[in-house]
Design brief:
Structural class: alpha/beta
Distance between the termini: 35 Å
Radius of gyration: 21 Å
Bound molecules: pyridoxal-5'-phosphate
Number of strands: 15
Shape: globular
Helix content: 40-55%
CATH architecture of one domain: 3-Layer(aba) Sandwich
CATH topology of one domain: Rossmann fold
CATH class of one domain: Alpha Beta
């Protein structure tokens, strides 16, 4: 398998070349030159596999520059009951006939980002070891991504993590998750500013090309193809659990922000997985919903990006969205480049109509919807869900079809977003065993000013 850019650069690269890179040199995102097709016999063969075996089969279709036995061992070490809590790894939780949650949030940080990040940690360690290189990951987080990255990279050889977060602005639980890590290669930096300040520092440091090269600065952001690929696996796993024969279709609803998760669903569907619909659910930050309804893509500025009770979806520029548009427009890199050169664009009517062939539909949800959906789900089915999953469930109900099971991806556990659960139900969500007293553990964090120079000095003196 080879990979090309969405913006017209047709230089073909291999998996391990793009693994450690961010954007393609022309500013585009990497995509496989074609989608491997999974036929009926293969689907039948996959019915009996464990999650790790299934992951190996799917990853092997896209990774041909890691020896099969090495890849198999890496995947087997990653998707274990010990790390993800159940032998199924992503079990379905049935709410009623034809409606289920797919549990993706039982990894170490209680959000679905662990599904991909845990694999990325293993792949980074493997490839850096093979090359005899090191990497210093610099990132900014307001919550889920930073903790998932730290738990994936902790103790890994050849990798250091420098994670910036806005001082005093994450929930006590989120702070405790990150700051309680005592691993020598994990560096928490609490910046006395807001999230945007943290992100600006990351940009400033990355734009200093001499510094970047000298200190081998890298990222783990959601445009990384390996992260997306890891997420393709649980669409297959969900379909396999929900069906008995290969002619049965299912629909997925995906609480969306950067469009990484649902883009993996698109890839699975393009490979031939029988997916009837991919339902994109947003919160009040509805850039994606507007696009799917109208064909009009309109990035919002910071002032028009709302802070909501499903904060991991508070995104106004969906960084993976370009991948789908590339496929929608027949892989016309020049046209993609022209469109994404602007903060907004409008598809032609014919192009907009073409979306239906890819199975996409969309909807949006509000704080009041989240609260009432959390309440309804608890009262009707005894299932406690988090705010992001509630956005998904609310929109999923708009698109149910009689003979098509609807699977809503559970993207986080309620323990992470306790205050809205208390608002909806008057009860504290339970915490997984071992995390009851996480706030009282010793913390390892350095508080620093909004000053890119100071952060550079800190990195230089800690590698
Ligand atoms: C990151 C995240 C999302 C959004 O996923 P994307 O891949 O960015 O669309 C939804 N819910 C939770 C809990 C998240 O952490």
């Amino acid at each position: 398998m080879r990979y090309v850019s969405t913006r017209g650069d047709r230089t073909e690269r291999r998996f391990c070349d793009i693994l450690l890179e961010g954007l393609a040199p022309d500013g585009g995102l990497y995509m496989p030159v074609s989608y491997p097709q999974v036929d009926d016999a293969t689907l039948t063969k996959w019915r009996g596999l464990s999650y790790a075996e299934l992951a190996f089969e799917i990853l092997s279709l896209y990774i041909d520059d890691i020896p099969a036995e090495d890849l198999r061992a890496l995947v087997n070490r990653t998707y274990t009951e010990k790390v993800f809590g159940t032998p199924e790894i992503t079990p379905l939780k049935t709410l009623e006939p034809g409606l289920a949650l797919e549990a993706l949030s039982n990894g170490p940080t209680l959000a679905f980002k662990d599904m991909a990040m845990q694999l990325l940690g293993g792949l980074f360690e493997y490839e850096l070891g093979r090359r005899g290189e090191t990497l210093n990951i610099l990132g900014a987080t307001s919550g889920d991504t930073g903790s998932a990255a730290e738990y994936a990279m902790r103790g890994k050889a050849g990798v250091n993590v420098f994670m910036l977060s806005p001082h005093g602005r994450m929930s006590p639980f989120q702070q405790a998750q990150m700051f309680s890590l005592q691993d020598a290669n994990i560096h928490n930096i609490a910046v006395t500013g807001v999230f945007d300040d943290c992100q600006d520092i990351v940009k400033a440091v990355s734009n200093d090309l001499d510094f970047k090269r000298k200190y081998k600065i890298g990222t783990v952001n959601s445009i990384n193809w390996a992260r997306l690929l890891a997420q393709v696996v649980y669409y297959f796993a969900g379909w396999l659990q929900a069906t008995k024969t290969n002619d049965e279709k299912v629909a997925f609803t995906v609480p969306s922000g950067n469009f990484g998760n649902v883009c993996a669903g698109h890839v699975a569907r393009m490979m031939g997985l029988p997916i009837e619909k991919l339902v994109v659910a947003t919160n009040e930050n509805d850039v994606l919903d507007e696009f799917f309804r109208t064909g009009h893509y309109r990035v919002r500025g910071a002032a028009d990006t709302f802070e909501t009770s499903s904060p991991s979806m508070d995104i106004s520029k969906a960084s993976n969205f370009e991948r789908f548009v590339f496929d929608l427009l027949g892989r016309d890199g020049a046209r993609v480049k022209a469109l994404f050169g602007n903060a907004e664009f409008k598809l032609t009517e014919a192009e907009h109509a073409h979306i239906a062939q890819f199975g996409f539909v969309s909807g949006a949800s509000t704080h009041a919807d989240r609260v009432s959906t959390i309440r309804w789900c608890y009262e009707a089915f005894g299932q406690l869900i988090d705010t992001h999953t509630a956005d998904g469930l609310k929109v999923a109900l708009q698109y149910r079809q009689a003979d098509v099971p609807m699977l809503v991806l559970e993207t986080a556990l309620p323990a992470k977003f306790a205050s809205t659960i208390v608002e909806a139900l008057g009860i504290e969500p339970p915490r997984p065993a071992g995390l009851e007293h996480i706030e009282s553990l010793p913390k390892r964090v350095t508080v620093m000013p909004v000053d890119a120079g100071a952060i550079k000095d800190f990195i230089a003196s800690h590698v």
